[in-house]
Design brief:
Layout (H helix, E strand, L loop, with lengths): L1 H29 L11 E9 L3 H12 L4 E4 L11 E3 L6 E3 L5 E2 L2 H9 L4 E3 L6 E6 L4 E2 L10 H8 L17 H4 L2 H7 L6 H6 L14 H5 L4 H9 L2 E4 L5 H11 L3 E2 L3 E6 L6 E7 L2 E12 L5 H4 L6 H7 L3 E11 L7 E5 L13 E7 L6 E7 L5 H16 L6 E7 L3 E4 L2 H5 L2 H6 L7 E3 L9 H16 L1
Parallel strand pairs: 1-2, 1-13, 2-10, 7-15, 13-20
Antiparallel strand pairs: 3-4, 5-9, 6-9, 7-8, 11-12, 12-13, 14-17, 14-18, 14-19, 15-16, 16-17
Helix pairs in contact: 2-10, 2-16
């Protein structure tokens, strides 16, 4: 009798689960029924672009230039991603506090020229540098920063010319690329340049720089970055307003850009195009597109609404990421003409650990300072600004309360996988997803955080998408 009761209970639970599952499946399927939407809420396009950062914006504009219809979905209120610009309300001066410069190559200069935006050489000069341990506020005596020392690292990087443009690694993969970066530094006597390397790895926080897989560092400090840093081959807008590019791109896209919007559900059959349900400030929209171009970070949480299959999920779940934040602050009590770099007094190569600041730099607007902040784990704006204020008090010996003007989170940042995953062909498998279920991928997780490299990669990918 007890066995029968248990069986009946099991059958009842199984039936309830089946009913619930079927109801959810019907509801999910119903969300893609065009008859449920007003005609004005159904968007038919050749390509749907997900993510309106640097790469997504470039991809959407270039697809339109190729004569294709597009719709771009961006969760923020503006385009630009890691490009952040603050307009001083008193003077009207634009201040870039995210992306500072671009690699001076044709794909970059052509894109700015397309929007009639004037660009010129990027430079940061006219300031004295104070090296200080931000945990104590004490300055580090007899400390120097010499970027000319980076040539020794660049010599090693030049052994792998494909790294800037692809994940095409030698086979077998050399041990040098898979060892911890601290070990690589010792092997090639790069100790004198280690701190200089750290100063230009903003956002590479998880794991700690010296524990990073060397190839993951090289994918950040690539030929593009070295050309910008060593040779000064970097440009920015002459107005010091990198946001202008994205303002003009948005004006051109018009209603084809859905801001403050997110994909909540997707149908991606093996062929025949894709359908997306998108939550917007004006209600749900149904997008029906021949192709899907994804530019957002490829984390499982981000990709869940896209009906990922096992192959996709098994790759996306391998990614880990760093946490990175940027902001502007005034009322610091700092004397004019100085910038402050974090240097750990008692740590190897003076490289600080996180969470913490990279630097506090003056901007073109007197009294306003830029800061970049890294962490291994997600932090709130309140936690970060509290720590920044504490550091400012240590450095300035002032009782003034800092006034925070702007803040942006670039988290999740610098998606990476382990050395074992790289050895086992992770990036070959990731690149094999191109075109799978009419879905294509570009963005930082695929290639680089450098806009020039990203735009070049995307430019090469677009003809395959529309073929």
């Amino acid at each position: 009798m007890k066995l029968l009761a248990v069986f009946l209970l099991y059958a009842s639970i199984r039936e309830a689960i089946a009913v619930t599952t079927n109801r959810e499946q019907r509801r999910d399927t119903a969300a893609f029924d065009p008859s449920r939407y007003d005609s004005s809420d159904i968007i038919y396009r050749d390509v749907a672009v997900i993510g309106g950062g640097s790469t997504g914006t470039y991809g959407a504009i270039k697809l339109r230039d190729m004569g294709k219809s597009v719709v771009l979905v961006e969760k923020e209120q503006v385009l630009g991603g890691h490009e952040n610009t603050y307009i001083d309300p008193t003077t009207g001066t634009p201040i870039d506090f995210g992306v500072q410069a671009y690699w001076n190559i044709p794909v970059v200069t052509d894109f700015f020229a397309r929007f009639n935006i004037s660009i010129g050489p990027y430079g940061f000069s006219g300031y004295s540098t104070t090296f200080a341990d931000f945990t104590t506020g004490q300055t580090i005596p007899n400390f120097t920063l010499n970027y000319n020392l980076l040539t020794a690292y660049n010599d090693q990087l030049n052994k792998y010319p494909d790294l800037s443009w692809s994940w095409n690694l030698p086979s077998p993969i050399p041990d040098d690329l898979l060892m911890p970066f601290g070990q690589f530094i010792e092997k090639y006597s790069l100790q004198d340049s280690a701190y200089a390397l750290w100063t230009i790895t903003g956002g590479v926080t998880n794991p700690f720089l010296l524990d990073q897989v060397t190839v993951n560092v090289m994918k950040w400090l690539d030929h593009a970055y070295m050309d910008e840093t060593i040779n000064g081959n970097a440009v920015t807008t002459t107005k010091h307003d990198n946001g202008e590019l994205y303002v003009k791109a948005l004006a051109e896209l018009g209603s084809d850009a859905l801001l403050s919007s997110t994909v909540t559900a997707a149908q991606r059959p093996e062929e025949g195009g894709v359908s997306l349900v998108v939550s917007t400030p004006k209600g749900d929209k149904l997008i029906v597109a021949s192709k899907l171009l994804i530019t957002i970070p490829l984390l499982v949480g981000n990709m869940k609404p896209f009906d990922v299959d096992d192959t996709e999920e098994n790759l996306f779940k391998k990614f880990h990421y760093s946490c990175y934040y940027v902001g502007l602050v005034n009322n610091t009590g700092f004397p004019g003409g100085y910038r402050y770099l974090n240097a750990a007094a008692n740590d190897t190569y003076n490289i600080p650990h996180f969470p913490g600041l990279y630097f506090i730099n003056p901007t073109i607007e007197k009294g306003i300072y830029l800061y970049w902040y890294g962490s291994l784990t997600d932090l709130t704006q309140e936690e970060i600004e509290s720590d920044v204020a504490t550091v400012i008090h240590r450095l300035s010996n002032s009782t003034q309360e800092p006034n925070f003007l702007a803040f942006a989170s670039h988290t999740p940042f610098k998606l990476e996988v382990t050395a074992d995953d790289i050895t086992n062909g992770f990036y070959d498998q990731l690149y094999a997803l191109q075109g799978h279920r009419d879905t294509w991928y570009t963005g930082a997780a695929m290639i680089s955080h450098n806009a020039g490299v990203l735009w070049n990669f995307t430019q090469a990918l677009l003809p395959r998408i529309v073929a």
